[in-house]
């Protein structure tokens, strides 16, 4: 598009250039002959008349009064009307009255030349300009079958020359304006082009009116063409031109062009008004360029202009969308201080901003305030709040708003239902989710997205049966599964490790015309990695590349994590380098996968190197990173580095999570440093975290190992009081500790308590019991435990037989010891070195034949 600002020289608004010789469509009027009958002669081109023997206007006698209504109809010839109008050339009002008196008389066929002559007369006097405008508007609006715009223009030019009228461009501009005013935009464009062809320059205001009309009707190509023609004749336009063109750019979705146009107009010194600044702010918000929007607002303030309510609304919405809620709130206050009310759109935008920041309370406070102030929330307002509550896991409030919405007579949309459904499932409120889902299905608003939300819930948990049932229900209700539906079903089978069925679904998807996407392949690749089949996973990756599907960051992370899971962490590290060369940008998750792989392989030096590389590349470690490293150093008995990681984490403002505390506590418990373990346990509670079963288990084992059973049983009681489940491992540890101290009654009570809670003893529990009883000479009770194991179908191990054999050996029951040895062989158990030491060398007294038992 041509720039309007190449020639900044001022152009007079009424500029006219030399007219070409017009095409005469009618000859001049003839002198009346009182002795001859004058008869009009119609041409072949409609109602135009040809007349003979022209005369000058000065020779026409001027009557003292207008023809009366009794004049003969035969006198209303074209020549007579023209001559009469010309006699009133200097009296526009009389000319207009005469024209109106004769235009409907029988025998007078209204003719374009007469109309043009009258128009010239009217525009010749400033006092009759409005009459000229009205006459044209009425004529153009009522006579759509009249002459084409170019014909009208030719007659205006022709009559001005024939009857010695000054070629006043006002008549032409009024004609252009009338076409636009009566919504004949195509004719207006023809008129504009015709004026340019006749070297008549339209006035800028009327060009702006036509330009605005074209933009309003979305005739963008014609608007651009018109503007280019304006530029080509040296018309740079004014602020209204700038406004119209910026509206055009915005409607085309090109805010950058609107901004450039604004900047160029401003640089060329065009006097821009508040409206242009407001639309420039709208353009900045659409880009979005909020710095420019703020700059323009400040310029408006400096000029004493107050932005419109619509501008404030747009800017506030843009700042909210970009996450700059603080500035949005400031602008809201500025808007209110300017005397404008808080409208619903602004209020809804601010509620959305609060919800995005997780501050649903303030969003709801604003919601209640606007209701108190008389604003009625609409569907968008409720949708924002319902979605915000669901995303922030306040799903019960979301449901209250959903019900309130219905009470207010606002019909919820499927989007509202889908938001709530996702919220219920996220909060594990399956009954509520099922009820809402059934309601949506029965009402007919449930769509494939509704089903996919529920389908994903089942699939990610590997609930294949439920997923299949839902799939069948979706199809039965006439909905066509989408790519997402197929991906969810593939995910369901991958989660349970049924890769054959996952590939069957994949094949069915292709057969039905659906194209697998990067998510489809990524799910399958992940499934094979989790099954330990790295080769098949990498084959699928190659297949994906072969069908021209570009891997996403999600895919790259799956491959790196998958290789790390299967113990190929070095290969994962090499793949990372290759992916980076292809444009992949590693994130914290990527490095965490590799660090975790090295930790599992016990390669802590390599894990630490990856951690340092991560920091050097500008990726900030998160809680998972530090937890993994702390856990790895604890397992490798390097508590100094574990503590160093802990301290480094705190120095970066990160708070350890429960797994990280658990790893440290367990590490110190294994080192029997219960002082540090207690300190960390206290710190965990002080930062507002709740210790879980794993933390308690480590502490109980630690206190058992240092023979502090009083502290161990206190922790057990604390667990029960806080409602934390006490699993079989903790009971076994406590029983073992009390048996070591010879407190058989306490051990027995704990065992009974464990059984009463429905906790089934495992082989470790039985081994601890038998070992403890045998060491204390309780061989009869030990035998009862052995019989209980038989009843429960638990096969004794070598450690149990060693404890029983050693116990009887100590009591001198050699025969029973040998019988137990034979029973042991009959059960298919292979005696170990401890067994033979007891039987052959008599090493029973003072040692612990079951010292290999560990319940820690």
TrEMBL record:
Biased segments, Polar residues type: 27-48
Region (Disordered): 23-48
Lineage of the species this protein comes from: Eukaryota, Viridiplantae, Streptophyta, Embryophyta, Tracheophyta
Entry keywords, A to Z: Repeat
Keyword Repeat: yes
InterPro entries linked to this entry: PPR-containing_protein, PPR_rpt, TPR-like_helical_dom_sf
Presence of keyword Repeat: yes
Species assigned in the record: Hibiscus trionum (Flower of an hour)
Pfam families, per the entry: PPR (PF01535), PPR_2 (PF13041)
PPR repeats: 168-202, 238-272, 273-307, 308-342, 343-377, 378-412, 447-481, 482-516, 517-551, 552-586, 587-621, 622-656, 657-691, 692-726, 727-761, 762-796, 797-831
Name this protein carries in UniProt: Pentatricopeptide repeat-containing protein
Similarity section: Belongs to the PPR family. P subfamily.
Alphabetical list of PANTHER family matching this protein: MEMBRANE-ASSOCIATED SALT-INDUCIBLE PROTEIN-LIKE (PTHR47939), OS03G0201400 PROTEIN (PTHR47939:SF13)
């Amino acid at each position: 598009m041509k720039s309007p600002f190449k020639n900044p020289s001022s152009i007079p608004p009424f500029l006219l250039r030399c007219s070409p010789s017009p095409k005469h469509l009618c000859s001049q009027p003839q002198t009346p002959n009182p002795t001859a009958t004058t008869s009009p002669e119609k041409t072949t081109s409609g109602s135009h008349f040809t007349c003979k023997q022209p005369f000058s206007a000065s020779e026409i006698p001027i009557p003292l009064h207008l023809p009366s209504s009794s004049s003969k109809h035969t006198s209303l010839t074209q020549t007579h009307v023209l001559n009469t109008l010309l006699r009133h050339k200097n009296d526009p009002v009389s000319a207009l009255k005469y024209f109106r008196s004769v235009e409907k008389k029988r025998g007078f066929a209204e003719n374009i030349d007469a109309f043009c002559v009258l128009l010239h007369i009217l525009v010749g006097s400033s006092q009759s300009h409005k009459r000229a405008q009205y006459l044209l508007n009425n004529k153009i609006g009522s006579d759509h079958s009249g002459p084409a715009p170019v014909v009208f223009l030719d007659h205006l030019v022709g009559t001005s020359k024939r009857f010695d009228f000054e070629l006043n461009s006002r008549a032409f501009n009024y004609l252009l304006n009338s076409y636009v005013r009566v919504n004949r935009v195509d004719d207006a464009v023809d008129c504009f082009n015709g004026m340019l062809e006749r070297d008549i320059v339209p006035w800028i205001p009327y060009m702006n009116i036509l330009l605005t009309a074209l933009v309003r009707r979305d005739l963008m190509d014609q608007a651009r063409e018109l503007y280019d023609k304006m530029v080509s004749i040296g018309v740079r336009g004014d602020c209204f031109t700038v406004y119209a063109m910026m509206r055009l750019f915005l409607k085309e979705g090109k805010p950058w062009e609107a901004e450039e146009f604004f900047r160029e107009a401003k640089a060329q010194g065009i006097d821009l008004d508040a409206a242009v600044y407001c639309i420039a702010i709208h353009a900045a918000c659409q880009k979005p360029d909020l710095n420019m929007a703020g700059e323009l607002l400040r310029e408006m303030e400096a000029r004493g202009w107050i932005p419109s309510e619509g501008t404030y609304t747009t800017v506030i919405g843009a700042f909210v969308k970009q996450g700059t809620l603080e500035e949005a709130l400031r602008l809201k206050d500025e808007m209110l201080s300017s005397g404008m009310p808080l409208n619903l759109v602004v209020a809804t935008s601010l509620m959305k901003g609060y919800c995005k920041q997780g501050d649903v309370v303030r969003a709801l406070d604003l919601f209640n305030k606007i209701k108190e102030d008389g604003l009625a929330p609409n569907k968008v307002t409720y949708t924002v709040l319902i979605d915000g509550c669901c995303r922030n896991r306040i799903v019960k409030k979301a449901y209250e708003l959903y019900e309130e919405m219905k009470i207010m007579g606002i019909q919820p949309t499927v989007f509202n239902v889908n938001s709530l459904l996702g919220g219920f499932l996220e909060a594990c409120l399956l009954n509520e989710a099922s009820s809402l889902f059934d309601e949506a299905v029965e009402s007919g608003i449930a769509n494939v997205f509704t089903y996919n939300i529920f389908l994903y819930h089942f699939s990610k948990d590997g609930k294949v049966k439920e997923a299949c049932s839902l799939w069948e229900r979706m199809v039965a209700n006439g909905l066509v599964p989408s790519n997402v539906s197929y991906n969810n079903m593939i995910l369901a089978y991958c989660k349970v490790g049924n890769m054959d069925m996952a590939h069957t679904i994949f094949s069915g998807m292709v057969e039905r015309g659906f194209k697998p996407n990067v998510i489809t392949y990524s799910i399958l690749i992940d499934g094979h990695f989790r099954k330990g089949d790295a080769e098949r996973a990498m084959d699928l990756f190659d297949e994906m590349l072969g069908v021209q599907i570009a891997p996403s960051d999600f895919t790259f992370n799956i491959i790196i994590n998958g290789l790390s899971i299967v113990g190929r962490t070095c290969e994962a590290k090499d793949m990372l380098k290759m992916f980076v060369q292809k444009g992949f940008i590693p994130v914290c998750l990527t490095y965490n996968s590799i660090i975790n792989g090295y930790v599992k392989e016990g390669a802590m030096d390599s894990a630490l190197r990856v951690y340092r590389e991560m920091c050097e590349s500008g990726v900030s470690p998160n809680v998972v990173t530090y937890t993994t490293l702390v856990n790895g150093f604890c397992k490798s008995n390097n508590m100094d580095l574990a503590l160093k990681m802990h301290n480094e984490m705190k120095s970066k403002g990160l708070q350890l999570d429960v797994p990280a505390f658990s790893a440290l506590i367990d590490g110190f418990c294994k080192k029997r440093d219960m002082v540090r373990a207690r300190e960390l346990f206290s710190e965990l509670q002080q930062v507002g975290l709740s210790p879980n079963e794993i933390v308690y288990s480590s502490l109980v084992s630690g206190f058992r190992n240092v023979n502090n059973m009083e502290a161990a049983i206190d922790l057990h009681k604390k667990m029960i009081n806080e409602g934390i489940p006490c699993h079989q491992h903790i009971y076994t540890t406590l029983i073992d500790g009390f048996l070591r101290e010879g407190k058989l009654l306490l051990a027995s009570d704990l065992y009974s308590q464990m059984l009463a809670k429905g906790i089934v003893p495992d082989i470790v529990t039985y081994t601890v019991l038998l070992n403890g009883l045998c060491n204390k000479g309780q061989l009869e009770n030990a035998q009862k435990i052995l019989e209980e194991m038989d009843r429960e179908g638990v096969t004794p191990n070598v450690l149990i037989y060693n404890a029983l054999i050693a116990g009887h050996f100590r009591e001198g029951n050699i025969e029973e010891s040998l019988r137990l040895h034979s029973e042991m062989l009959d059960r298919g158990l292979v005696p170990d070195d401890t067994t033979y030491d007891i039987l052959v060398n008599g090493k029973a007294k003072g040692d612990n034949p079951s010292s290999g038992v560990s319940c820690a």
